[in-house]
Amino acid sequence: MRPFIVTAAVAVVLGAAGCGGGSSSSSSSTSTPAPASTSGGGTSGPVTKVSMHNIQFNPKSVTVQKGATVEWVNDDSVNHDVTKDTGPGPQFSSGSGNLAGGDTYKVTFNTPGTIKYECTVHPGMTGTIVVK
């Protein structure tokens, strides 16, 4: 009976750890919620990456064309989130502090204007997206 208990425990641990995925973490194999799209347009346009590292968004400001997607990647050792503060289009949020190291979050922008966002976990960790 002990082999069954050990096997079941290993299966539970591996399942909780998310094992079985490859090491290409730039895909959407994260436990984050589905990204918001400013008009339901999907992610068919160009993708601009923003790194979260040393409690900063890098680059802090990006300019993209209408229809482009921004992908945030947590390259830090602490959890972060991406939450819209102001600007056109619908509200978006990755969820409070739920982006662990290696996790990604994507939003497609279809409404021109300037969008300000933040990490709600780290005051002062802010960024800007200008949609042309």
Describe this structure in words.
This protein has one helix at 2-17, and strands at residues 47-53, 56-58, 61-64, 68-74, 83-86, 104-109, 113-118, 126-131. With 132 residues, the chain is mainly beta. A four-stranded mixed beta sheet has the order 2-1-4-6, with no helix packed on it. A four-stranded mixed beta sheet has the order 3-8-7-5, with no helix packed on it. Strand 7 (113-118) and strand 8 (126-131) form a beta hairpin. The longest helix has 16 residues, at 2-17.
Order of helices and strands: HEEEEEEEE
- Percent of residues in helices comes to 10-25%
**Largest pleated sheet:** 4 strands, mixed
Q: Determine the mean pLDDT.
A: 77
For the largest sheet, list the strands in their spatial order. Answer: 2-1-4-6
What sort of overall outline do the alpha carbons produce when their principal axes are compared? globular
What is the rounded distance between the termini?
A: 64 Å
Described by its quaternary structure, the protein is single chain
User: Cα-atom Rg, whole angstroms?
Assistant: 17 Å
What are the defining features of this structure?
about 130 residues; mainly beta; 4-stranded mixed beta sheet; about 35% strand; disordered N terminus
Short synopsis of the structure:
This protein has one helix spanning 2-17; strands at residues 47-53, 56-58, 61-64, 68-74, 83-86, 104-109, 113-118, 126-131.
How are the SSEs ordered, and which strands pair?
Elements: H1 2-17, E1 47-53, E2 56-58, E3 61-64, E4 68-74, E5 83-86, E6 104-109, E7 113-118, E8 126-131
Parallel strand pairs: 1-4, 3-8
Antiparallel strand pairs: 1-2, 4-6, 5-7, 7-8
